[in-house]
Amino acid sequence: MSHPQFVTVLGATGSIGLSTLDVIARHPQRYKVFALSGYRQLAELLALCVRHVPLFAVVPDEKVARTLQDDLCAAGLDTRVLVGEGGLCEVAADPRVSTVVAAIVGAAGLRPTLAAVEAGKKILLANKEALVMSGALFMQAVRRSGAVLLPIDSEHNAIFQCLPGDYARGLGAVGVRRILLTASGGPFRLTPLVELESVTPEQACAHPNWSMGRKISVDSASMMNKGLELIEACWLFDAQPSQVEVVIHPQSVIHSLVDYIDGSVLAQLGNPDMRTPIANALAWPERIESGVKPLDLFAIARLDFQAPDEQRFPCLRLARQAAEGGGSAPAMLNAANEVAVAAFLERRIRYPEIASIIDAVLNQEAVVDVAELAAVFAADTQARHLAEQWLSRHGR
Ligand code: NAD
Ligand code: MG
């Protein structure tokens, strides 16, 4: 590929967006920012525009757009402000763009990410919810358009690095026995079960190893994050749920492993810093500096492993069930989880009720086929409705 390449960062103001821009700024000859999007943190988005001088910025509504456009003009920038999902899809599919970083959180990222897929871009996928919701359609669209889908979720990037280049022939054909997906166990790995009744959003968001957005931090505490990642791995690597085993590894140094039939187990290690998988995917198949410190094995000294406890982490069981159920089940799981996590962050429910809500939603609705995007969104809407009903039934 010739340089510099234009990069669109969807969700630029978030944790992944900022890590991406940090890597990009280290390589001005290779990458130029085409567009940045933000949702609520507009002062932050303005500062990012001043720093990276994108051609476009995308915000949720017209009022915000007018304010940002005025501020950009006052700062002497030509950056044009676009609005809403249409604007996001436009900067994801623009012919001048070669790479799109999909770092919006949740279902809101699905349409813009698909727009990048359909335009045949190189896509750095952080927005796992998009793939969980619409896996079959998403992967069909990738094959049809010739888009290059590279995972930047650290586990999936690790698996990608440990697989041979021709893994698309099938995991069996390249000698893979199983994928070992590592999980830190989050902040509640050792918390006595009775105390989980009263944990706060602040405790849930205080991840021992990673600094991340609030939604994924709660998902990490409940291990729904690992459940979503299990589904993500099945789609990315064409694996059966039974081929993906979750391993708790509290140090977060091994980011995942691939177990081959000859007994070899390949792992990718590194400091827990998202700039490594981001740099890996940005430059792939080359390697570039990411700003991440070299791994100091002597300081780490030991690596521990344990099996996950499903009584402590019921969300992991629910996600595995949804993965096995297929069809609309993962979209329902994801939507119910988004509503439940938002309610927990707003202190409307207790932490164990996140799993109760998802369980109730999944049990109330039959799994259906999702052959079109409309069916995915119908499942998403129905699950949100059922989750809201649960909240009002319980007086929240
Ligand atoms: P974050 O909350 O820090 O950032 C989310 C971004 O999405 C922000 O830019 C926000 O403005 C934007 N956004 C939020 N709601 C939106 C909406 N309705 N429409 C448009 N934009 C919206 O989240 P994050 O931690 O950066 O995570 C982003 C994605 O990456 C998630 O899907 C997460 O699961 C995934 N991921 C994150 C990490 C991590 O280390 N943070 C690791 C692996 C995967
Ligand atoms: Mg991850």
Mean pLDDT equals 97
- Structure ligands: nicotinamide-adenine-dinucleotide, magnesium ion
Helix content: 40-55%
Q: What is the terminal separation in angstroms?
A: 53 Å
Q: Mind describing the biggest β-sheet?
A: 7 strands, parallel
Can you offer a commentary on this structure?
The protein has 16 helices and 11 strands. The protein is globular, with a radius of gyration of 20 Å. The model has no long low-confidence stretch (mean pLDDT 97). It is α/β, with parallel strands linked by helices and 396 residues long. The strands form 2 sheets. A 7-stranded parallel β-sheet has the order 4-3-2-1-5-6-7, with helices on both faces. Helices cover 46% and strands 15% of the residues. It has helices at 15-25, 42-52, 62-74, 84-93, 110-118, 128-145, 154-162, 201-205, 214-222, 224-237, 275-283, 297-300, 314-325, 329-345, 353-364, 373-393; strands spanning 5-10, 31-37, 56-59, 80-83, 99-102, 122-125, 148-151, 176-183, 244-248, 254-260, 265-269. The chain starts with a strand and ends with a helix. The protein has 3 domains: 5-151, Rossmann fold; 153-321, no CATH class; 326-396, RNA polymerase sigma factor, region 2, helix turn helix motif (Rna Polymerase Sigma Factor, Chain: A, Orthogonal Bundle), CATH 1.10.1740.10.
